[in-house]
Design a protein that fits this description.
mainly alpha; Four Helix Bundle (Hemerythrin (Met), subunit A); two-stranded antiparallel sheet; globular
């Protein structure tokens, strides 16, 4: 128990727990709608999303990779995104079906990743998954801002409808979500059907689309991304 408590409150996990602690702040400012509150919610969300890399970087840098950290990091990401999207649906800023598709993708990929890890396989996040994450976070930030703003350039002004921009970006992130899920399912099926009953993959040397992640010093497997 002491070891678990020590792991839970080490520095990288403290950063992860802080990200989770930001969720009520984001939701509160979003729920009580005003131009100022919406802008504050967007800023808090953007800062929370931007610190996503920080806990993993600290864990690898200081050799503090833990089992509970590998569980909390992707959980925090999903909690921040899903809870904010649900609030945006409640406020009528985004279509419910769009959020359902995005959430279904996360459940499917997370389930397949769990099955793969049970077989000793880690399928790395592809580039399309990284595109999905970046566009999705930008979309939610604009949806939180929500209102129209005049943007001044040197010689002209442009009125930006933050909700419209966020909606189109969310459509784009949904496309990346479906694409990345299809790629992940393809890779999972390829490696699953190549494995013989003894768990040996033929042609492993010549066709390595999926490889177990290397073990860092200390014997713990490195953090697994969930994109």
């Amino acid at each position: 128990m002491s070891s678990l408590k020590k792991d839970l409150f080490n520095l990288p996990n403290a950063v992860t727990l802080t990200r989770i602690g930001m969720i009520p702040i984001i939701l509160t400012f979003t729920y009580y709608e005003s131009r100022l509150n919406s802008f504050v919610a967007a800023i808090v969300f953007a800062v929370t999303a931007a610190t996503d890399f920080l806990d993993g970087w600290i864990a690898r840098r200081r050799g503090l990779v833990t089992v509970i950290g590998k569980f909390l990091d992707p959980l925090a990401d999903k909690l921040v995104v899903v809870s904010t999207l649900i609030m945006l649906v409640h406020l009528g800023r985004v279509a419910a079906w769009l959020v359902i598709v995005i959430m279904a993708r996360e459940f499917i990929v997370s389930g397949l990743r769990t099955m793969a890890m049970g077989e000793g396989i880690v399928i790395a996040a592809g580039q399309e998954g990284k595109y999905k994450t970046a566009v999705q976070l930008a979309a939610i930030s604009f949806l939180l801002v929500h209102y129209r703003y005049q943007v001044d350039f040197l010689l002209f002004q442009v009125e930006v409808d933050a909700n419209a921009v966020g909606t189109w970006l969310l459509y784009l992130s949904m496309a990346f979500s479906v694409w990345s899920a299809a790629v992940y399912i393809r890779d999972f099926l390829q490696i699953a059907y190549r494995r013989d009953p003894g768990g040996v993959t033929p042609n492993e040397a010549s066709e390595p689309p999926v490889r177990p992640a290397p073990l860092p010093q200390g014997g713990q497997q490195g953090p697994v991304r969930s994109d």
